[in-house]
Amino acid sequence: MAADDRTSDDFDADDYGSDDRLAENLADLDEDIAEQRAAALRAGLEDYDLDEEDAALLEGLAGGAEGIEFLPALPVVAIVGRPNVGKSALVNRILGRREAVVEDTPGVTRDRVTYKAEWMDRRFTLVDTGGWEPDAKGIDRSVAAQAEVAIDLSDVVLFVVDAMVGATSTDEHVVRLLRRSGKPVFLVANKVDDARQEPEAAALWNLGLGEPHPVSAIHGRGVADLLDEVVKVLPDVSAVAKREIGGPRRVAILGRPNVGKSSLLNKAAGEERVVVNELAGTTRDPVDEVVELGGKMWRFVDTAGIRRRVHLQQGADFYASLRTSAALEKAEVAVVVLDVTQPLSEQDVRIIDLVLESGRALVLAFNKWDRLNDDDMDGQDRRRYLEREIEQDLAHVSWAPRVNISARTGRHLDKLVPALETALTSWDQRIPTGKFNAFLSELVAEHPHPLRGGKQPRILFGTQASTRPPTFVLFTTGFLDPGYRRFIQRRLRELYGFEGSPIVINMRVRERRQR
Predict the structure, then answer these.
(1) Model pLDDT, residue 105
(2) Which residue in 74, 303, 357, 394 has its CB near the most CB atoms, within 10 A?
(3) Are 444 and 408 in contact (CB under 8 A)?
């Protein structure tokens, strides 16, 4: 069956092998000609309905030696508060539409949902955080962890309180953290539906966060006035989302409990920097340490082992997992430590998927390799089983560099540096717009998208919107099937490497403008 006669259900990203002709054609293509073709394709987008985000993206592609000039990071506004205080309703009101927000489940903080919002021509990132239920066990630590993560990763905080209930002990605990943060905080007194209820909001002055802003997220009352005040203090460029220039590259060490994360940090640092014990779960808080490795300075962060799903944890384990997620968000590359003496588990795969969701570069460190003796039959058998497990369970990250180490003895620790450098180089890699569109044209000519409902989606124009991780945007006439997007990702890796970095491909389906 020819590729263009297939339906979307027939397509598989692995159907086609490597295409040497594609690489040869791109290698022979003149860069000036490629840029001219890309400019023509971009001009053709004027015949299609584009929104403001499309225009902003295309404007950000102007000039530069690399052919791409990235827009500054938008300021971040986080909405925090207990469940049932109206956070979700406030998010929908600010966005001007109904959106699915994070479920009010205790401890699901790492499932924060991000939206692009705008008010009075000021665009910003709106972060909805999951609420937390008062819990008799570990409530202080749980509340502190929730608030710290939300505050730390934002420029402005909207602290939502139910004015009809009043301030609770949980609210007062968070207030102390908000005061120490030094960031602008707006106290939002929600559920004030009319003027008769405003005295209830006035009682929140006692929290010491300044004037309460009475609003009704459901009816929209007072929200416009609140946003007017918020945009006045928003920075032009986010202080937390912007790229950090200079300084040691930040490496997060992740893995299940007792796989050797702390031992790896101690060996890299050359001293007993963190406690190592056979008791799993010794590390509670992320530990930062600047170490010299391979002639370079690195900032390693030893994190707590991730035991179970976060929303099933309580007390110290809950707190530790939450801090681990925050440490990952601040890192540039994650080293996931795997114990080769134990079979790969669902937990290992879930931790790797957590790194993929965060968009960080990835290196796989197979630890305790010294225990697999070449002369030992059990060691040889374990190696064979391990390779089979890697093929089955880690096929989706086959692009990640693998390093076999022994954190206890320091064996092959020097090989970790080239792997980190490779992953970070790929994470920062960008492809000029001309080359990327030439790649797409050659690819589609050889292997067109399958028919969908009798129609064939076309790729109108493509560009790399950002790095860290490499993120590509495709303007199309229809939805591209997941299998075809994986096919594009695989060909990108074959031609440009991207070893150690995830690749994100986003679509913008646009219809032709009515004349």
Answers:
(1) 40
(2) 303
(3) no
